[in-house]
């Protein structure tokens, strides 16, 4: 069951990447479809996080969920939205990835 919880958590984190990006595209909820996608996928992401929390420690699960979302949204911003990709910024993202992988390895 713990393996399924990790899968749910990973998918929830990836959905966070999509919903956050959709909310950016919604332009403050003034564009219908990006708003609908953002809100719908945020609810799905929260639901998957809640299911994963049945079998994973809350601190670990939340840190991994946020980490996946933060790294994904930052990379999407760099790749698709032309945001800055400085060495310092990329090193900080690498630190987040290292923390997420470390938490996964520690929890088994």
What features would you describe in this structure?
With 108 residues, the chain is an all-alpha fold. The chain is built from four helices and no strands. It has helices at 2-25, 32-52, 58-80, 87-107. Helix 1 (2-25) packs antiparallel against helix 2, helix 1 (2-25) runs parallel beside helix 3 and helix 3 packs antiparallel against helix 4. The model has no long low-confidence stretch (mean pLDDT 94).
Question: N-to-C SSE series?
Answer: HHHH
Radius of gyration over C-alpha positions, nearest whole angstrom? 15 Å
Q: Helix content range of the residues, please?
A: over 70%
Uncertain runs are none
Q: Based on CA inertia axes, which overall geometry fits?
A: flat
Number of strands: 0
Number of helices: 4
The amount of beta strand, in percent, is under 5%
Q: Please describe the biggest sheet, giving its number of strands, its sense, and whether it closes into a barrel.
A: none
Oligomer type: single chain
Please state the structural category.
mainly alpha
* N→C terminal distance: 12 Å
Estimate the mean pLDDT confidence: 94
Structural features:
single chain; 108 residues; mainly alpha; 4 helices; 82% helix; 0% strand; flat; transport; transmembrane; EmrE-like
